[in-house]
Amino acid sequence: MTPASPASINAGSANGFRSASFDYTSYFFTGITGLAVALILTMLFVLLGTILANGWPSLSWRFITANPQKDFFEPASAGVLPMIVGTSVRVILMTIFVIPVGVITAIYLTEYAHASSLSTRVIRGAVNNLAGVPSIVFGLFGAGFFVHFVGKSMDGFIYGAAGTKVWGQECLLWASMTLAVMTLPVVIVATEESLRAILPGLREASLALGATKLQTIVRIVVPQALPGIMTGGILAVGRAAGEVAPILFTGAAYYMADLPKSLSNQFMDLGYHVFILSTQSPDIEKTRTTLYATVLVLLLLTFALNFVAVLIRSKIRRQMRAAH
Amino acid sequence: MGIHRGHKARPLEWVAEKLIFAISLSAILMVFLIFLFVAREAWPIFTGSMNSAAIQPVLQASDTAKLKPEVLQSYLGLTKAGFTAMDRESIQALMEVRQAAMDELPASVRSDKDANLNTVSWKYLIQPHQWTGYDKPEYIWQPISTINKYNIIPLVIGSIKASLVALAFSVPLALGAAIYVSQLARPALKEWLKPAIEMLAGIPSVVVGSFAYIFLATVLQKFLGYESRLNALLAGVALGFAIIPVVFSIAEDALTSVPRAYTQAALALGASKWKAAWQIGLPAAIPGVFAAVVLGFGRAIGETMIVLLASGNASIVSWSVFDSTRTMTATIAAEMAEAVFGGNHYRILFLIGALLFVVTFFSNLAGDLIIHRLKAKMEGKV
Question: What is the pLDDT of residue B4?
């Protein structure tokens, strides 16, 4: 298996660290681990390359701005405008819900709580756990809690027992809220990181000038951490934009002739549409080009968002390095 | 942080602090609510109060007036509010519909001894049973048929099988890459290798799934020549795209957190870079590597869209990786839409969800504990 001679292997294991005249094993294993890196990068490039090569030719302005017909498996009646709108609206709504809660939690963890206190440890444990809950379980939770519990109670409260169904069904609002719960850890972790990067001297100077703790946080700490908070938001959006499982039973629609008009409407979604195109098509060969183009749109959207987040983050890091 | 002024004396400050604390508890609340509401829908299965037998006892519609309201309410499966909102005629009508439905059962079902079984009781959920027409006891998941069979063992085996294939494929790769990037690569190379590998994590799982479904499946089948185009092997390889960045990141972190003095001492004693990494760096970071594998498993077993697209979704009990497989996550995603709200199938799917939550909860807990201990040890706190 190894190209190394038996002698050099024996020398290596028997003498511990003393290197033989030419250490074949060392080169061999460095090569093996390097190969692992190369293989992973190959996987990445094959995936991106296949999608780009197949999707790019059929990506047109018409495709991006067209409303699909009911038989969207036919290339001629395909289009992704309502999916782009649906996905964008649900992630924007999600950001509105998740940012305040996430930022305030991060502020508590960095500015108020003692690092070793029980509440900090439990909150941190919960955040870690939330990050690991399977996305389909978020979908079940969204259906069981938001749609059937909160939504139905709201309907009962607003419209009485007559049984008008407005909020007690799958819709934009519940899909965004489910995603907000899912991305809460992303925002908390990113915000915490940027809050910790702020020099303690800034806080001390503010307090020394007579500002209260709350004033210091609102006027000094949070503005300094703003780029980091934005990064957290963008990372959350990048994560949520491509998620399908949490919205399957909370709001995504198979087909809708019109764009959603209210928060209580269902919506079409880019990721869900990719799934539909892959599995429901009567003729996969015919749908293939549409499928690749739709995947490419989704990929470009999520990568663009992640790329912006990486840029902002590296800019913050550079500023910090300059400041220290 | 370190400085505490007498802000407690100011009422507004005090209120703000308490408010911030209250909001920061929302993460805990959410974990609690997720478990509560997923388990709530599955609860009647736990307690055995659901009955899925095809042949149900029938109360005569003509006896409606004689029966007690509580008996009627539970017989018709109504909530208390729903029951009181109904008038006498609609209850009578419901009773007649119920009776007619039972009368219309085909004779083949009526004569089937399985039609009397409550297939959602624990016995039939996890133990094999010899159904009519089978020549030996088997684990069957067939939620939509004349006799609905809800044995979850095929799904559990499917999930474990796909996750194990994914780990077998991705752990060696991710670990090798982590060793290379953290210990062997030049700093300039490391600078762009790490984000490049972590880019994999940014690819939505539905994209990986459809890539596996329309491209990778064909390529793998051509190379390996197996029968079923979509199978556990393909699902495992596709899952690798999602698992590799997770395992890589955590293992790389653990390896980097080993104090440089350790490996530098080895290098000073004449060890090659590889030996310093293999015999000093890796053993010191081994708990972190273990945590990476545990968290990778948690991620693999919870991944939905990739396995839904790539695994073939046939609920067969088999450990062969070339057979089509149905996982727990894919089952929930595929069947939830057609399950009747509050029905047996619906509740079983929530039961599977609760099971998934518990499994990932403990694998995350274990992984985090191990990492926490390792970090403390490396920083010399223990």
Answer: 54
Contacting residues of B for A138, CB less than 8 Å apart? 34
Secondary structure (3-state) at B142: strand
Residue given tokens 């047996």 in the structure block = B344
| Superfamily of chain region B153-378 | MetI-like (1.10.3720.10)
What average pLDDT does range A170-193 have in this prediction?
94
Domain boundaries, chain A: 6-55, 61-323
- Nearest Cα neighbor of A242 from A173, A182, A171 is A182
Helix B344-378 vs helix B26-47: crossing angle, to nearest 10: 140
What values do phi and psi take at A5, rounded to 5?
A: -75, 150
| Residue B271 C-alpha, separation from nearest chain A C-alpha, in angstroms | 5
Cβ–Cβ gap A136/B179 under 8 Å: no
pLDDT of residue A309 exceeding 80, the answer is no
**Residue of A105, A111, A238 lying closest to B26 (CB–CB):** A105
Question: Tokens 């709200």 belong to which residue?
Answer: B341
Do A207 and B206 count as a contact with CB atoms less than 8 A apart? no
Give yes or no for B11 touching A (CB within 8 A): no
pLDDT score for B47: 86
Segment (H or E) for B149: strand B149-150
Q: What percent of the residues of chain A are helix, what percent strand, and what percent coil, each to the nearest 5?
A: 75, 0, 25
Q: What's the CA gap between B70 and B80, in Å, rounded?
A: 9
Residue A254 has pLDDT above 70, yes or no: yes
- A110 CB neighbours in chain B (<8 A) are 1
- Please give the average per-residue pLDDT across B334-345, as a whole number: 89
B249 touches A: beta carbon within 8 Å: no
Given A33, A35, A303, which is nearest B184 (Cβ)?
A33
DSSP string computed for B35-81: HHHHHHHHHHHHHT-----SS-----GGGGGGS-HHHHHHHTT--HH
How high is the pLDDT of residue A323?
Answer: 66
Q: Where are the domains of chain B?
A: 56-104, 153-378
What residues of B are in contact with residue A140 (Cβ under 8 Å)?
A: 38, 41, 332, 336, 349-350, 353
Q: Each residue of B208-231: b (16+ CB within 10 Å) or e? A: bbbbbbbbbbeebbeeeeeebebb
* Shortest alpha-carbon distance between residue A222 and chain B (Å): 14
Is residue A21 predicted with pLDDT exceeding 60?
no
- At the fourth CATH level, the homologous superfamily of domain A61-323 is MetI-like (1.10.3720.10)
Q: What is the pLDDT of residues B321-337, one digit of tens each?
A: 899 999 999 999 999 98
Test A12 with B275 for CB contact under 8 angstroms: yes
Which DSSP category does B141 fall into? Answer: E
Q: State mean pLDDT over A149-165.
A: 83
What pTM value is reported for the model?
0.87
Provide the angle, in degrees to the nearest 10, between the axes of the packed helices B11-24 and A81-107. 130
Contacts of B211 in chain A (CB under 8 A): 47, 50-51, 295
Give B240's contacts in chain A (Cβ within 8 Å): 43
Q: Is the pLDDT of residue A6 over 70?
A: no
